[in-house]
Amino acid sequence: MVWVFRISLGLMILAYVAWQAWPVADLLSHGATASDIWALAGGASIPGAVTAAAWIAVILLYAVSGVLTAAGLSWAPGAWFLAFGGEILLRLDLSPAGAPPPLIDMAGRAAEAFRLAGVGLDPAPLSMAALLGVGLLVVALGAWRGWKGAALTRSWAVLPVWG
User: Fold this and answer.
1) pLDDT in tens, 86-109
2) CA-CA distance, 88 to 106, in Å (whole number)?
3) CA-CA distance, 16 to 64, in Å (whole number)?
4) Alpha-carbon distance 108 to 120, whole Å?
5) What is the pLDDT of residues 106-120, one digit of tens each?
6) In CA terms, which of 22, 42, 48, 71 is 20 to 30 Å from 157?
7) Buried/exposed 74-84: b ≥16 CB within 10 Å, e otherwise
8) Cα 10 from chain centroid?
9) CB 75 within 8 A of CB 92
10) Which is more confident, 118 or 148?
11) What single DSSP character describes residue 139?
């Protein structure tokens, strides 16, 4: 039964990846070249190129973690939390470029989604808490194996027996 949740969580992660990468995919489908997209992503300057490359790395790490989660492999939490850490750095604007361009602005896309949903709170802590919760689910749904190779959720289904 855990595999159903694990595959569902992997698909949810891949849907998040698709949502974050959609502006780039939309531009590619309308005939933009890779150099055009690189320029729109801020790649014309060295600090902008670092930010754009970090965004690409975060998106790829999220995609890898989604596939690894669905497959139940033990590398999934590591890939997820590497991507999560990279997204925190991008959202906090700790990159050398300052604020990222709108094409790759993860915080701006989350703020717009929260605004459209009618949530009147600051979206940064809410979306970060949601991503942390998903990361903890990746760990708990058996992608990380405890001692004796048993999934963590297996212990939730069996009452403890003291003896």
Assistant:
1) 988 887 765 555 666 777 777 778
2) 10
3) 12
4) 15
5) 777 888 888 888 877
6) 71
7) eebbbbbbbbb
8) 11
9) no
10) 118
11) I
